[in-house]
Amino acid sequence: MSEYETIRVEYDGSIAHITLDSPSRFNSLTMSMADELLTVITDLSDDPSVRCLTLTGNSEAFCSGADLTAFDGDASDAPRLRRLASTLHDSVIQLHQAETPIVTGINAVAAGAGVGVALSGDLVVMNEDASIEFAYPRIGLTGDGGATFLLPRLVGLRRAKEIALLDEPIGADHAVSLGLVTESVPADEFEQHLHDVAQRLADGPTVALSATKRLLTESFDRDLAQQLADETNTIAQAAQTEDYQRGYEAFFGDDDPEFVGR
């Protein structure tokens, strides 16, 4: 994989760790970062050797939203915002459609465009010192990055409106209680725990895990009969994998299964 200017990619076995690392203040989203994120997510999602992805930010922030220094603060910004949002949205779609399990790690503040990206993980681990901030009302803009899609699905419409309209920072414990994130982790344990969660997924039956997350996501757009039909087809397909054979043999044996992701 090529080198990037705003993103770091590090491999640990079958895990690919992605770090948003913009030179802009508070790790804000530049056009370069949006372009590179789309490339990285697309490439890694199609890499059969990668069985889990993590996505976090550098030491300053997860992502504090768009880099406002690139704008003029008037109507001339509309084309720039349209291009930035469109590219970011392609990345968010890739995150949601990726077959590879994804764990996002909110290491510090996730604001504006960073909110949608941070909440797009299948599992979301949050540093106890971090915060989530909708932020758009502060500059008179509306939400993007998938935030207005994810918030009502995660916390309900009434609570989503409260988060978006009142724009109060949300700490880690509150985010857990709302259902925004999976868990809050002490700062000194954050990086190791993020890796441990990813390792657990990477060691699992990743074909079945990927199919399961797809079933859960697509259930919102179906009625019961459609969902049951897809469950039938999917479980029959899963029975044809090597991981199913390994799991079946281990069920009747003494050792835990060693899944291989196929």
Automatic annotation (TrEMBL):
Q: Which Pfam families match?
A: ECH_1
Q: Which SUPFAM superfamilies match?
A: ClpP/crotonase
Using the record for this protein, list the coiled-coil segments as residue ranges, or answer none.
none
Q: Where is the signal peptide?
A: none
Spell out the InterPro entries in the cross-references: ClpP/crotonase-like_dom_sf, Enoyl-CoA_hydra/iso, Enoyl-CoA_hydra_C
- PANTHER family in the cross-refs: EG:BACN32G11.4 PROTEIN, ENOYL-COA HYDRATASE
Name of the protein in question: Enoyl-CoA hydratase/isomerase family protein
Source organism per UniProt: Halocatena marina
